[in-house]
Amino acid sequence: QQKVQQSPESLTVSEGAMASLNCTFSDGTSNNFRWYRQHSAKGLEVLVSIFSDGEKEEGRFTAHLNRANLHVSLHIREPQPSDSAVYLCAVSMGTGGLSGKLTFGEGTQVTVIS
Amino acid sequence: NTKITQSPRYLILGRANKSLECEQHLGHNAMYWYKQSAEKPPELMFLYNLKQLIRNETVPSRFIPECPDSSKLLLHISAVDPEDSAVYFCASSLGQAANTGQLYFGEGSKLTVL
Question: Fewer beta carbons within 10 angstroms: which end of chain A, N or C?
Answer without folding.
Answer: N
